[in-house]
Amino acid sequence: MNTSLSRGHVELLQFFRDKTALVFTFAFPAMLLLLFGTIFGDQYNDAGVSASRVFTASMIAYGVLNTAFVTMGAGLAMDREDGTLKRLRGTPMPVSAYLVGKALLVLALSLAETALLLLVGVLVFDMPLPDASHWLTFTWIFLLSVIACSLLGVAVSALVRNARNAGAILNVPVVALQFISGVFIQPMSQLPDWLVNVASIFPVRWMAQGFRYVFLPESASSQELAGSWELGKVALVLGVWCVVGLVLCLMTFRWSDSDR
């Protein structure tokens, strides 16, 4: 455990020294929230909830995906290409300690990103915060989301052959999923049925729906596809993706490019 914590501390120091990554990791989701919330903020859905409030809740899913999936995937690709992983392989540090260190980085960044988005929602768009029971639900949705996205980031990093292109490659599925998963477009009933079916396979749709349950009033459930929050299905899908992500990690993880 001490080795994992030490590695996590190193990962945090390295990340915060990279000003470009720091700015884009945190600023981009918040900037999009400001744009969408300002442009559509005076619009209300049939449940009487403002668009800015819906975007704030939904964008937390984007913030977690962007932070966990992209940061984990790009970080691993870079460490593999510059030889960091290969050097660590020759040390007493087990692979589990390295991955836990990365996970601690992702968890810290995801918490910070979520806090920033909520700060924008509360201060700029006057979004009220939920009661204690909803925060308990937020906790398990957030943790399952971070775990699933982080594991998938580890798995997908094996497909990145050039670390310099990692960000661009990893952001393709991220951006696509936002548009079909109810983050940028609400309600999802506006989308073609086949796109809804595709989105329902992946975790982002369920992440966004779960976070909307936490931060929106009960009346807003009428805007969801099933007319309810489906928290049981949210837990099931995110849990399955955690297992799938773990299996893919075990199948694809490698220490260096020569291990292909």
TrEMBL record:
Keyword Transmembrane helix recorded: yes
Chain ranges passing through the membrane: 21-40, 60-78, 99-125, 137-160, 167-185, 234-253
Recorded superkingdom: Bacteria
InterPro entries: ABC2_TM, ABC2_TM_bact-type, ABC_2_transport, Nod_factor_ABC_transporter
Gene Ontology terms for molecular function: ABC-type transporter activity
Subcellular location: Cell membrane; Membrane
Keywords, ordered alphabetically: Antibiotic resistance, Cell membrane, Membrane, Transmembrane, Transmembrane helix, Transport
Domain ABC transmembrane type-2: 20-256
Family to which this protein belongs: Belongs to the ABC-2 integral membrane protein family.
Protein name as annotated: Transport permease protein
